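Task card 7
Instruction: Convert sequence to structure tokens.
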Amino acid sequence: MKTRTSKKDLFLIVVCTIALILFFEPLLFKEKDYQLVDTIYDYCKLALSGIIVVKFLLNKIKDKDFSKSKIIILTIVYQLVCFLITIFNHGDIMRFIGPAITSIVVLMIVEMLVVSGNIFKTLKYLNIYFRLCFLINLVTIIISFIEPSSRFVYFLGIDNRFIFMYLSWMFTELLVDVNDNGKITKNSYILFALMEFSLLIVNTVAAMIAFFIWLIPLCLNKLKIMNRVKIIVNSIFLLDIAIVRFRLSYAFSYLLNAIGKFPHLSGRVLIWDAVFDTVARDHFLFGVGMQSEQTDMLFFKKHVSDVYAVNHAHNTFIDIVYRYGFVSLILFSLILYEAIKSLINNKNNRFATVTFVALVIALILGIFDTLLFAGFYLIIGISCNLHDISTKK
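Output:
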């Protein structure tokens, strides 16, 4: 029998759903023609973030219990250190604030929704939004074939940025599926196939290959990967080092050339070398702070003339080293450690496998891109609240 949602819970669901929709906006209006709309988005994000932070703090003051908020406190410390580094280096504070607020607020949203028992109600609404974005994205793909020069070709980010939404969407769909049906149903298989097909169309090879890892919870759950969490995570870290520092991709140059890719991974290897040869050498501990997009583009263009203008290091860990140094990388590693520890401690939880696979995909994609976005912190938040999620439907 369905229970009626209280006004208090309804307010929380509405505010959190709208906030998550804004946080998961797939760079809708980043083109110059939509700057006004993008500014409105930013103000809405800021206003909703303020409401969520206030409500979170009021709940904590009332309960007098911060024991469940360790990951939030750790993330605040990490972002505070990054903020001070940016200040010290005369960086771009406004560019820093957005991602920093997103990381903290998303974790607060997850904790509040889990504690109140409204996490799956909210995820269902979020999934409706993801499906709508996917349908509009398909329209832009069709337009790109009919009229490649159309201004709407990149309106919903049909290039590789859209993987950010796919990872989050598949994750939330699987969580809801497991919660409602006790298992992964055919609907999730269909969504997986649709996402893979769209990635194939736009030739996003790394994202497409990484996405195949979803086959583990979809088809191969008997492998009991939750008993091998440490091995899998350490293997990913070693793979990251091998690709970044030892140019492992060049060993597969023939295969990469066969699929239309280059051994330097579209200039990524050159970007990583530039960071290690300059920033990691001269600003080892604290990096250069969050600088403006123009400053970043000039830096990478100066040191890597063979790549297009880029404004980040295209690797999660290297980007942290570039901006905030190894001190911040250690703090970020502690955030990952807390999530992994919770997954290990709750390995028999019915949502553990799906959550761990989502984290694995994020880490693998993080080798080739900077994945410090809302979806990443959603995965971290769910990971660290698995025990409570299992007791509240």
